[in-house]
Amino acid sequence: MKRARQQPLLLAVGCCLLLLAVVDARKAAYSSGKAASLLQSASGDSDAAGDAEELFDQGNDCFSHQCSDGYVPKKNHANISGATDEACCEATCLLYTCGANYVTNPSYAGNVAASDAECCDKTCAAVTCPAQFRVPAAKMTAAGLTVKECCEETCALVACPVSHVHIDKNYNSTYPVANETGFCCEPTCGAFTCPTWQGLGLKTDAVALRSPSVTKCCAATCSSQDCPNGYKMPDEMADVVAHGSACCNLTCAGYTCSNGWTADSSRSFVFGHTDEVCCTKKCSIYNCSVGWTRNTDNSNFVGFDDPTCCLKTCLLHQDNCTGDYAPSASKESKAGSTDEDCCERRCSLHTCSAGVRIPDAVKVVGDSDRVCCEPSECPIFRNKTWHQENGCNLLKEEVCNNSYTILNNTDTARFDALSCFFNQQWGVCLTGPAEPRTCSNFSAETIMASAS
pTM of the full predicted structure? Predict the structure, then answer.
């Protein structure tokens, strides 16, 4: 611990001047009194009397001595004989030279002492800073005892901007507050702007290089190269450092479409090398939807939809087969869209080559005499009435012509229906010809079976 500091030097000097004034005022009285005392004690002693007289004549005492700069009177100087700084005075810190890692403090100048502890302050040079902190040169000779007073951040704690790195020689140095980036960091090629107008761009493997320059950082870009026929440079590659095939992409102009595809001229400069990108489908590879069948005449047409590449099949028309037409399962896969193409004709549309159409012809699917026609006699029998008893005999004329009878044919072992007719000449009802075997919905066999 340092001793309590005395008043500043100026105050000490002022006190000395005041003291000297008092000394001058008292000197005569003090000296004469002291000399008188010596004279009195030396009565009869010639040597003592001589000393007293010399003292009085010369003023040879510390009380009257004026200390040199850097000295102050000793506390009991008034009672000390002498006339030198060594005899009368004490050295102050003003005369002390501080040792290593200490610095003079003017406020200690009046202290009567001669040690680092009492005359000096420790400097920051003696402070141990934590990692990534250091005492700057300006503070090495300045007074300080704590990390806060003496230590400052080094460049190691500075975050350099993008594409900048720490300057090696300054990494462990403190930095000026107003220029931390400039002092601690330097740009790399990543921060360098290559002259693109000269066909140059940043080399990808040079991004981290220091001391950037055109030679070190830049190389030819794709914009300085020409692509072969069928190839084109993508716009985004213009400023990319590359060469050869890395700069050029195949376009559709250089692509050959597969079977079933045809080149699309509007895509000649589109980047690609697949059918999907460069070509358009032809009908030859289109799969028609249900209810459609491929139209072979349109195989080379450009298109990919049912109306362009396909024909409707009768499957889509079956619901329209009504009236004189009937749906036809056998025609569902056939190309068509009309009743004639897609439906089965009913007998109501058939014209018989012989005989007449069968009854309810619109309900019968067919288009032949065999299916749709019957002998012309058949309607006559359907309009007559069966007389079971006595056959045609004894029937009056008006009844006779509207009747028929059924007889067993012994030759065929079948029943035959025979028409009754009235003979005007004879005035009797006779049995006429048998009903045709091919009448629709009329058969003697059937009639007899239902009657039994």
Answer: 0.40
Using a CB cutoff of 8 Å and minimum separation of 24, what contacts does 285-290 make? Answer: 285/259, 285/260, 285/261, 286/310, 290/315
DSSP SS3 for 386: strand
Residue 314 has which token pair?
């009768």
Percentages of the chain per state (helix, strand, coil), in multiples of 5: 40, 20, 40
Sign of CA dihedral 235, 238, 242, 243: positive
Q: Where are the alpha helices (DSSP H) in 45-129?
A: 46-58, 85-88, 116-119
DSSP reduced 3-state for 37:
helix
414: CB partners within 8 A, 6+ apart: 408, 444, 445
Instruction: Please give the single-letter amino acid code of residue 209.
Output: L
Residue-wise burial string across 51-86, b where 16 or more C-beta atoms lie within 10 A, e elsewhere = ebeebbeeeebbbbbebeebbbbbeebbebebeebe
CA 58 to chain CA mean position, Å: 104
Q: How far apart are CA 57 and CA 76, in angstroms?
A: 22
Cα(102)–Cα(376) distance, rounded to whole angstroms? 150
Q: Alpha-carbon distance 65 to 76, whole Å?
A: 13
What does each of the 452 residues of the chain score in pLDDT, given as a tens digit? Answer: 343 333 333 333 343 343 334 334 334 333 333 333 333 333 444 444 444 444 444 457 898 899 999 999 998 888 888 889 999 999 999 999 999 999 999 999 999 999 999 999 999 998 999 999 999 988 998 999 999 999 999 999 999 999 999 999 999 999 998 899 999 999 999 999 999 899 999 998 999 999 999 999 999 999 888 888 888 999 888 889 988 888 998 899 888 999 999 999 888 889 888 999 999 999 998 999 999 999 989 998 988 899 999 999 999 999 999 999 999 999 998 999 999 999 999 999 999 999 999 999 999 999 999 999 999 888 888 888 888 777 888 889 989 988 888 888 888 888 888 888 999 999 999 988 887 877 887 777 677 766 66
- Ordered DSSP codes for 288-314: PPTTEEE-GGGTTSB--SHHHHEEEBG
Instruction: Please state whether beta strands 403-409 and 385-386 pair in parallel, antiparallel, or not at all (unpaired).
Output: parallel
Token digits for 365?
């699917």
